[in-house]
Amino acid sequence: MVSVPSPTHGAHSVTAVEQPPLPVKLVIAGGFGVGKTTAVGSISEIRPLTTEAAITEVAAGVDDLTHTPGKTTTTVAMDFGCLTIDPTLKLYLFGTPGQDRFGFMWDDVVQGALGGLVIVDTRRLDDCYAAVDYFEHKDIPFAVAVNAFDGEIHHNLDEVRWALDVSEHVPLVVFDARNTGSVRDALLVVLEVALSRAEGTAAG
Amino acid sequence: MAAGEPGPNEAGRSAPGPSEPAGRAPAIRPFLLTAGRVAGGGAGPPLPVETQVVATSSGLGALDSLAFEQHDLVAASRRPQSVAELAAELRLHLNVVRVLAQDLCTAGHLAVHVPNARTTQDISVLRRVIDGLRAVPDSRGTLRDSG
């Protein structure tokens, strides 16, 4: 990290307190192993970081946990990265845990997000239903991105759209989570949805 | 003056030197530090994960008087950092960082910049993000972990 001389008593020379950038965030959702962390890593300027939140204190009272005493220290991991747009604006990318029972994490992370990208593996379409439902119900701008593992997808996009039951106004794209340009373009699709919605709100 | 008053969680006078056990129990000790408090527990919504935290000069001046996690949080915030980055870097639970950051902010040691919820509807911000993202080249090479 930045090497800063360790402060001594009283007289330490500290540079003026830095003004932080405006933070904005996008959420990358989808089932386990679908490529969320890979996508974050492809676009992030830092290696994806992991943070953990304890499930116990947030999910207290959830029935499933009451009869599984071993779960009291369970944590959920969340990977994230960031991209400095300019010194005053920083984009964070959060990969949300995929399972339903971790739904609580989503509100926590998604609150205030510009939008979401739901990553889909066409071999396991049902893994992403929870994420699609979530963004629809929360009315958060989102797009669906089919991760083309090995450069191919196993269904055509119309079939995927039909299977996911997402409306026509939700963009559906094919992308490669390992490819920076591909992830960038998928995120741009999400941001365009967010922008046109904001413009619609402003005009209305 | 902000440094004058140790917080209620201050590790305490009975332990003059660092006496942290070698094998930390990451799930338990942090919540002892917060006296069992959790983020968002009645005192308003929890800090958004992207909330920027930066040490104040009084916080940096008081570093020597801070113990353990409080010390680490202020020291790690010399540069502005998000709550999520601090949690990852210090290997603390997100909610522990939230609680401690709010305590340290109250004590004047940290400045906590809670993002404005309206930003999501801010057309100029959205355009700036779009333009910034468009400028990302197709390939950036070295950062990715393989596998």
Topology record:
The complex is a heterodimer of chains A (204) and B (147).
Chain A lengths: L21 E8 L6 H8 L5 E6 H4 L4 H4 L8 E12 L2 E7 L7 H8 L4 E6 L8 H10 L3 E6 L9 H8 L7 E4 L4 H24 L1
Chain B lengths: L28 H5 L18 E4 L1 H5 L6 H9 L4 E2 H8 L3 H13 L3 E4 L9 H12 L13
Antiparallel strand pairs in B: 1-2, 1-3
Helix pairs in contact in B: 3-5, 4-5
Arrangement of strands in the largest sheet of chain A: 2-3-4-1-5-6-7
Number of strands of chain A: 7
Taking the alpha carbons of the first and last residues of chain B, their distance comes to: 50 Å
Largest sheet of chain B: 3 strands, antiparallel
Q: Would you give the CATH topology of chain A? A: Rossmann fold
Q: Helix and strand string of chain A, N-terminal first?
A: EHEHHEEHEHEHEH
Helix content of chain A: 25-40%
Question: What structural class do the secondary elements of chain A suggest?
Answer: alpha/beta
Number of DSSP helical runs of chain A: 7
Count of individual helical segments of chain B: 6
Largest pleated sheet of chain A: 7 strands, mixed
Give the mean pLDDT of chain A. 81
Q: What is the helix content of chain B?
A: 25-40%
Number of domains of chain A: 1
**Assembly state:** heterodimer
Distance between the termini of chain A: 47 Å
CATH class of chain A: Alpha Beta
Mean pLDDT of chain B, nearest integer? Answer: 78
By CATH, the architecture of chain A is named 3-Layer(aba) Sandwich
Description:
In chain A, helix 5 (129-138) links the parallel strand 5 and strand 6 (142-147). With 204 residues, chain A is of the alpha/beta class. Chain A has helices at residues 36-43, 55-58, 63-66, 103-110, 129-138, 157-164, 180-203; strands at residues 22-29, 49-54, 75-86, 89-95, 115-120, 142-147, 172-175. Chain A has one domain (22-203): Rossmann fold (3-Layer(aba) Sandwich), CATH 3.40.50.300. Chain A has a seven-stranded mixed β-sheet, with helices on both faces. Chain B is mainly alpha-helical and 147 residues long. Chain B has one domain (26-134). Helix content of chain B is 35%, strand content 7%. Chain B is built from six helices and three strands; from the N terminus they run H-E-H-H-E-H-H-E-H. In chain B, helix 4 (83-90) packs across helix 5. The model of chain B is unreliable at 1-25 (pLDDT under 50). Classes of the chains: A alpha/beta (204), B mainly alpha (147). At the A-B interface, strand 1, helix 1, strand 2, strand 3 and strand 4 of A face strand 1, helix 2, helix 4 and helix 6 of B. Chain A: One of its GO terms (molecular function) is ATP binding. Chain A: This is ATP-binding protein. Chain A: It comes from Streptomyces chattanoogensis.
